Amino acid sequence: MNRKQRSKKVKVPARISHLKKPEGLSLEEWQVILRRQIALETRLRIKNVGTHPVFSTFQITNPKTTRTYRVVIAGEVPGINYCSCPDFAVNTLGTCKHVEAVLHKLRRKKSHRQTLKEGFQPEYSAVTLRYGLKRRAVFLLGAKAGVQLRSLVSEFFDEDFF
Question: pTM value?
Answer without folding.
Answer: 0.79
